[in-house]
Amino acid sequence: MTDASDTPGALDGLFVLDLTRILAGPTATQLLGDMGATVIKVENPKTGGDDTRGWGPNYAKNEDGSASDLSAYFMSSNRNKRSIAVDIATDEGQDTVRRLAARADVVVENFKPDGLVKYGLDHATLRAAHPSLVYCSISGYGQTGPNRDKPGYDLMAQGFSGIMSITGDPDGVPTKVGVGIADVMCGMYATIGILTALRHRDKTGEGQHVELALIDASMAWLINEGLNYLSSGALPQRRGNAHPNIVPYDTFEVSDGHFLLAVGNDAQFTRFCDVLGLEEVGASPDFKTNMDRIAHRDALMAHIRPALLTWTKAGILDALRRVKVPAGPINTIGEALRSEQAKARGTVRTMPAKGIAGGEIQLLGNPLKFSATPVKYQRPPPRFGQDTDEVLATWLSEKPPE
């Protein structure tokens, strides 16, 4: 779990030019930066930079107690980057970005399709000049299709993809996931695509265009529910926290709250029934196999739910742990991030931050654990434009840094 600066990162020496904003693109470039890449984030001086710098209400505080331009949202996906203020709507700004692209291994952008053509910063133009360049484009609906020109936000992606139709209470409204999961997963797919294209470039010398959409990524991770529909033609339904293919797998109420139960096989179900004193339910032919339990879901719940109301959370979790039946608590975010497990895994990382009250900030750590090339936490999320002079003087010199 070390991130010692003298340990090489897996992507040390890789130069990424980041023309993205908000979440999907910044997620991808942050991951590359975590693994050692040099990431230069280009931000618009007319707008004060990345939109999310102003997405409060939570901000790192300046030393005088005022809100900085480091919102919690911005900090979530912008560590290990340098920020430069460049207006690509100007000839000078376009020239600066083209010169940086000439040094780059990777360019990542999330403008609307063809949005960079008028600036001469699009895939076709830059790759014509630099055939080995890996150029990644992220958009809401993709570069093709009838919706290509529609704006794409995480909420729209969750709605269009179908994930909202199966999320939420059965009697409630379609519900989005509590965080911008469509953006985050798109960023992860983008990272995989970029690394794959770099592998191809390293073997052949040929760059390529990596193109993906929030909508495509969101439909790709419909996983079993997507296949449930394709296999049967029946539309999946909202089940709250219940599972369409495993029973019992849900949130259950006990005397002092709720807990999670995930019975994964028939042997676990028998042991679960024994703990509850429902041996006859465990032995019933109506519930013997998972397929039986799916077919008689409501009848099974009528046995289980009343029996659990006599238990406390601590009592049922301890009893199920002893017989190796998967169960767990429903933590608040605070309980999760301050848990001993999170501490042991380095889930929360503290980084020094100049000009910020207390001199440091807390971030969510990268979950990847490498035995030889550990994740690095070298640069806190940057203040807007803080690295402009350094980057232009260094990377646009005749001999850029190794």
The end-to-end distance, rounded to whole angstroms, is 26 Å
**CATH architecture grouping of the largest domain:** 3-Layer(aba) Sandwich
CATH superfamily of the largest domain: Crotonobetainyl-coa:carnitine coa-transferase, domain 1
Overall pLDDT confidence = 96
Q: What is the domain total for the residues? A: 2
Question: Outline, from the CA principal axes?
Answer: elongated
CATH class of the largest domain: Alpha Beta
Rg (CA only): 25 Å
User: Can you count the beta strands?
Assistant: 13
CATH-assigned fold name of the largest domain: Rossmann fold
Q: Main beta sheet, described? A: 6 strands, parallel
Amount of beta strand: 15-25%
> Structural class of the secondary structure composition?
alpha/beta
Helix fraction by DSSP (H/I, runs of at least 4):
25-40%
Quick structural overview:
This protein has 402 residues and is an alpha/beta fold. The chain is built from 16 helices and 13 strands. The chain is 37% helix and 16% strand.
List the helices and strands and how they pair.
Layout: E1 15-19, H1 24-34, E2 38-43, E3 59-61, E4 67-71, H2 72-75, E5 82-85, H3 91-103, E6 106-109, H4 123-129, E7 134-139, H5 154-161, H6 181-204, E8 208-213, H7 214-220, H8 223-232, E9 249-254, E10 257-262, H9 266-276, H10 279-283, H11 290-295, H12 297-308, H13 313-322, E11 327-328, H14 333-337, H15 340-345, E12 348-352, E13 360-364, H16 388-395
Parallel strand pairs: 1-2, 1-6, 2-5, 6-7, 7-8
Antiparallel strand pairs: 3-4, 9-10, 10-11, 12-13
Helix pairs in contact: 1-6, 5-7, 6-7
